[in-house]
Amino acid sequence: MPRCRIQAHYEQLSEFERDHIIVLKEAGLANRRIVCHMSRSDATIRRCWEEWVDNGRFQQNDGNGRPRATTDWKDRVIVRSAVTVPDSLLSTIRRATLT
């Protein structure tokens, strides 16, 4: 029986929680103490720290589902085309994004 209450395994860490874990690890706290303090599993704390040490950053996944059809750049072009010429046709906007 664990001494600390641990949250459900499917909840993602917020950016604040990730930063908090890194600060506590850099302050020298052991994983077990961070687990009790943050109410997260030992594996979650370990993975968070390993990703920080390996990459120096966190990789935020967008989640499951279909991959995006357009890039961020194409999204900006589409919005700009629609805003500058509100009565433009869809075919015109498509031609603008193909360049």
Can you characterise this structure?
It is a single chain. This protein has 99 residues and is an all-alpha fold. It folds into two domains: 15-55; 68-98. 56% of the residues lie in helices and 0% in strands. The protein is built from five helices and no strands. The protein has helices spanning 15-26, 31-38, 42-55, 72-84, 90-97. α4 (72-84) packs across α5 (90-97). The longest helix has 14 residues, at 42-55. The radius of gyration is 22 Å and the shape is rod-shaped. The chain starts with 14 loop residues before the first helix and ends with a helix. The mean pLDDT is 79.
**Whole-angstrom Rg:** 22 Å
Fraction of residues in β-strands? under 5%
Mean pLDDT: 79
Number of helices: 5
Portion of residues in helices? Answer: 55-70%
